[in-house]
Automatic annotation (TrEMBL):
GO cellular component entries: plasma membrane
Function: Putative odorant or sperm cell receptor.
Stretches assigned to the G-protein coupled receptors family 1 profile domain: 40-249
Pfam family membership, one: 7tm_4
Stretches that traverse the bilayer: 25-47, 59-77, 97-119, 131-157, 196-224, 236-259, 271-289
Membrane topology qualifier: Multi-pass membrane protein
Name recorded for this polypeptide: Olfactory receptor
GO MF terms, alphabetically ordered: G protein-coupled receptor activity; olfactory receptor activity
UniProt xrefs under SUPFAM superfamilies: Family A G protein-coupled receptor-like
Domain of life per record: Eukaryota
Record localization: Cell membrane
PROSITE patterns to which the protein is assigned, alphabetical: G_PROTEIN_RECEP_F1_1 (PS00237), G_PROTEIN_RECEP_F1_2 (PS50262)
Family note: Belongs to the G-protein coupled receptor 1 family.
Length: 310
């Protein structure tokens, strides 16, 4: 129930304060995962820049995804870690709006880049002769820029819809960051309608990009099945394995957050952890461990480092 309409200056992030006895443990776990996430993403970006063999569209898209995910985690996890140790978990209304805008924008950017990675594999496997002409490094850069523009265009619309009105007290955001559903419920006017609109926008974007990826893999599968040799089929599938794995994890966890029925219950704070913490951690791990070129590039860098230190 909305108690009082007032001009709020800040929100209180309830977050994990409902689990006081495990906050120190959660801090250690999330801090370690965050460091590993940063290390993995920065390693991918660094290796792509240093090794000329990786200067091709597939790895440019991968480094763009790593950069986007690094920014994505920076918008949420440092604040979450600080709140796990602090007594005051306040965030200004402007700060909340900025955090939400960047979270939604970077989340949308990640979805679009994953879709572009699927499109890149589609061109490489289904149109190998035209691939060098169609997917140049310039075209790759333009597509990545479009992904950022598209992600933040949708984000700005959703954030503007949520913050256009005034908010009611109590100013308790029942989440560990400014999640749009948790914040929009504090809106004094038409909160149900606004929540429905922003949810439809988010779900449409999520399902739209996922269906495009599925469509590209339908064409890829039909092409691969026509390859006569088993070795050729295996080689084609191996170039897509990491991407498929990350897509399943990314969209699987995201669907739990955004497609969860309101009446189903459950703690939204805990439900959001896999999507905001686990997915960014697993993504660079999967792309690096299952990629021979990335392993080779890492070996080259280690070899050069050993040579310099001798």
């Amino acid at each position: 129930m909305k108690i009082n309409q007032t001009i709020l200056q800040e929100f209180i992030l309830v977050g994990f304060s409902v689990y006081p006895h495990v906050q120190t443990f959660l801090f250690v776990v999330f801090f370690c995962l965050y460091l590993l996430t940063l290390t993995g993403n920065l390693a991918i970006i660094g290796l792509t820049c240093l090794d000329r063999a990786l200067h091709n569209p597939m790895y440019l898209f991968l480094s763009a995804l790593s950069f986007s995910e690094t920014c994505y985690t920076l918008t949420i996890i440092p604040k979450m870690l600080a709140d796990l140790l602090a007594k005051s978990r306040s965030i200004s209304v402007i700060g909340c709006g900025l955090q939400m805008c960047f979270f939604l924008g970077l989340g949308g950017t990640n979805c679009i880049i994953l879709t572009l990675m699927g499109y890149d594999r589609f061109l490489a496997i289904c149109n190998p002769l035209r691939y060098p002409l169609l997917m140049t490094n310039m075209a790759c850069g333009q597509l990545v820029a479009s992904a950022w523009a598209g992600g933040f265009f949708i984000s700005l619309i959703e954030t503007a819809l949520i913050f256009k009105g005034s908010f009611c007290i109590p100013n308790l955001v029942k989440h560990f960051f400014c999640h749009m559903r948790a914040v929009v419920r504090l809106n004094c006017l038409d909160s149900d309608l606004t929540e429905f609109i922003v949810t439809v926008i988010s779900v449409s974007g999520l399902l739209g990009t996922f269906l495009l990826i599925i469509l590209t893999y339908v064409f890829i599968l039909s092409t691969v099945l026509r390859i006569p040799s088993a070795e050729g089929k295996q080689k084609a599938f191996s170039t897509c394995a990491s991407h498929i794995t990350v897509v399943i994890i990314h969209f699987g966890f995201a669907s739990i957050v955004y497609l969860k029925p309101e009446a189903s219950g459950g703690d939204d704070t805990l439900i959001a952890v896999p999507y905001t913490v686990i997915t960014p951690f697993l993504s660079p791990l999967i792309f690096s461990l299952r990629n021979k070129d990335m392993k080779t590039a890492f070996g080259k860098v280690l070899g050069k480092a050993r040579y310099l230190y001798k």
